[in-house]
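Fold these two proteins, one after the other.
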Amino acid sequence: MDKISRFEKVSPEQFKKDWINCFSACPDKEIESIYNSIRLPKRATVGSAGYDFYSPIDMTLYYSNTVDCEKTYGLSSGTITVPTGIRCNIKQGWLLQIYPRSSLGFKFGLHLANTVGIIDGDYYFSENEGHIFVKIVIGSECKKDIEIKKGQAFCQGILTPFGITYDDDTVNKRNGGLGSTDSFKKV
């Protein structure tokens, strides 16, 4: 099989900035500890298509919206945005698709807020270093809380080739991080 990408950690500075943007402030030492414990995505078996992304923290997603949750990491009333600390350098003509881990989707209805995360190859070069965020949502059919432990696989990335049309004449370049395809640079 062709090797067409490489997972890397974003810089400690980028991770800290994004972590603080997602969660209330926490001590630098705690953010540093979370960053240092980040594991790069891996396949579980030689036959696996997906690269497991591991939770950088303990998370609990509460089914009931009546739970009074503070906006701190690990607590959420049904949804949480996870800065993974991961970026992916992808060969041209490929993309990375992010899905929830199959077992979590099947057992708990866990899904991504955007259904499927699409990580384009040029995202790696964006202003946020291509930092991959995953926003997970508990399914309404679940009717129970979900606990995801630090280090547990919670989503997976699948590398997929893509094509372009014969008349494609796109020359614009990405200028930013998450959601940046609407703010591209005209070349």
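Now the second one:
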Amino acid sequence: MLENGTLMQYFEWNLPADGKLWKELALDAPKLAQNGVTGVWLPPAGKGAEGAADNGYNVYDLYDLGEFRQKGSIRTKYGTKKDYLAAIEALKDKGINVYSDAYLNERFGADEIETVTGEEFNQRSSYQMVGDNKTIGAASGFTFPARKGKYSSFTWNWKHFGKVKWTSDEEGKYDYVMSPEVDLSNKEVQEELIRWAVWYVQTADIDGICLERSENIPVEFSRDFLNQVRMLTGKEFFTMSSLWNGDVNKLLEYIAEVRSEMSLLDVPLHHNFHDAAKADGAYDLRRIFDGSLVSRDPVHAITFVDCHDSQPGGERESWVADWFKPLAYSMILLRQDGYPSVFYGDYKGISKDKYKGEKTVLEKLMKLRKLKAYGPQHDYFDDPDCIGWTREGDAEHKDSGLAVILSDGKGGTKRMYIGRQFAGAHFSDVMGNAKYNIKIDDEGCGEFYVNRGAVAVWVRKEPK
């Protein structure tokens, strides 16, 4: 029996650097499965330049999953390699797929400074040289002395990096390159990253990755990299991209260009949620899916409300206001299209911002997706302040079927068709907003209602 898929992004930017995330995840695995989570999106597991304090995006050594004493620690911010593998095993035991974030564009914390000649180019045009050649100290020597060639003997030097940023040292002798950008067109680099990905799949048994900052990765590299990894591992290797672009046409162009199965975050839909929440009731809910990826290409759309980039203090901060969270999550979890992602910060809270999260509401909605949200969908997007839809249910999922109605204004009632098979049945709002049951008429319709600024989800519940 095929069940709905639900993704959980199991991290946020401001997690404490206590090395406990992997252990927490292992303990959470049974609960996540119970709530309908079928895939977990994890932060980068490799060692970062700041060691135990690094969130994994200041990439130093992709092969160090918390095994070697490098950058001042053995463990990463999230735990040791042993903890990581144990967490993955716990997830797999519950039938949950594992996807890892991967940032391939830059390297940090070089082991050696190399003296090289650099050419200064126009920042707006990488083809226009605007200055003389300079002798610079490039932070481009990565030899990983503590790992001593285990898993890979590959070392990085200046030839493996392209465009760089530099700054003068205190004495003004010469400039130092900071965080060199990886040259993904370099054949040696391509081969090494494919070797790493195959090793990663075989070592950690991951099922796929999220390519961070895909907008800065050549499309040709992404296509060839994914094709090679899939062929060499024999895995489907689910791949998602965090390409952050609010123009759905740009997302569709990217999907067409990469020509390799890849899902994208539905950034336009997230922005619609953000705008609707800010409008405080003045948004036209009939337009909430306008310009979204899920409305144009639902197969490749990962729908989300918030993520690590959009959270307070994130690089693309665009936090969806708390009052609108239940409405937004109902729109990604209880509809037929898209692959919805639940954010750790919304599920468990963000202690730095004293945000407690919406765990109770989210667990209700996630379980409703797992058990009830099946069958033909009927939309009622006919009012700017109050919209709804129904799912008729199907024979494979016992007692499935539901009706959803939400309002960013004063609330309201909407007559909606849920199926003649429910004629005479009673329905109740499991979200606790509506206080009395309703009865479905002989035509399979019900007068469903919702209170101000809320969402009501109606499921069959016969009176005792």
